[in-house]
Fold:
Amino acid sequence: MAETSPSATGPVAGSAAPAASQFALRQELARPLAFLYGLLCIGLCLLLWWVFTRGETVEERWISPAVLPSPAETFAADTLHKLWFDRTLTRQTAASLRRVALGFGLAALVGVPLGILCGCFTPLGAFFAPLTIFGRNIPIAALIPLTFSFFGIGEFQKVMFIFIACVAFIVMDSARAIGDVNSRYIDTAYTLGASRRQIILHVLTPLAMPSIFNSLRLLFGLAFGYIMLAELVKLGDSAGGLGDIINISQRLGYQTHIILVLLIIPLVALAIDRLLFWIQRELFPHQYGGHGLLREVVRWWLHRWEDLKSLVRKPRAFAPPSYDAPLAVAATPSAAAPPAPPDVVARKSP
Structure:
C-alpha cells in the first residue's frame, strides 16, 4: 500500500492549522483591523437608524419621530445647544460621576479588605456568605425605596445606594481572587519562617491584587449605570445628574435629549474604563503588558514608608549566643552560683 503524505490527508495531529479566512476559530485579529470592524458596526447602526427614520412627514417614516427621532434631528445644533447650556450637561455629568466615585470608593474601601479576610479565613467567609449572596442577587431597583427610608433623598442617599449595590460584588470577587492564589506560595512562605500576618500582607494580597483591580474596573462601569436609578428623585436645586435629565426629558417629550444622554453615558464610561485600564497595566505590567511606571512609583513610596517606620520604631538588635559562657561558668562555679537565702545562711552559721 502506498504511503500517503501528511499534506494529502490534512494537517498532522497536534499541529495548528493555518487560518483560511478572517473568521477562523479563535484567530488573533490585528488592532487596526479590529478597529475597522468596530467602525463598520457603528456605521451599520447609523445607516439603520437613518433608514427607519427618514422622511419629511410622519406618514413617510417607518418609526414615528415621537418614538425615535432621526439622526439629523438628534444631532441638530439647537438640540445640542439646549442640552449643553440650558440643561447644564457638564454639571449634571460631573454630579453623577462624583456620586459614583464616592459610593464606589466607599464600597472598595470596605469590600476589598473584608473580601481578603474572607478569602484567607474560611470561617469568616462562611459567616458573611449569606449577606454577600443576598447582596448580589437582590434586584437593584428594589433598593431605591429602602434607601429613601434610611437615608432620605439627598446626596447621601445616592452615595449609599451605590455602596450597597456594589459592596457585595467586591467582597466576593476579592475573596475569590485570594482563593485563586496557588497554595505553594503559602507553603514556601511558611518554610521561610513568615508569620500569618506577613503571608496575608506580603504574599496573598500582592498576588491577588491584579485580579482584584480588574474586577474593580469592570464593576465601576456597572456602578455608573446604577446611578441612573438613584437620580430619579432630586432634592431642591441640587444637580440632578444624568438620570434626572432622562427623567425630565421623558415627561416633557424630549426624545432627542434622551438619545443624546444615552449616547454620552457609554462614551464617558468607556473613557473612564480606558483610564483605569492604563492604570491597571502600569501597576501590573507582568500580567497586562504595561511599562510599570506606576508600579515603580508605588515601590518608591513603600520604601520611603519602611524608612520612616525604621526611624520611629528602632529594630531590635540581634545578640548572637556566646558559646564560651558555659565554659566560664563551669570554671568558676562560685561566681555563677546565686547567693543563698538568708535563712539558709542562718542555719549554717554556728
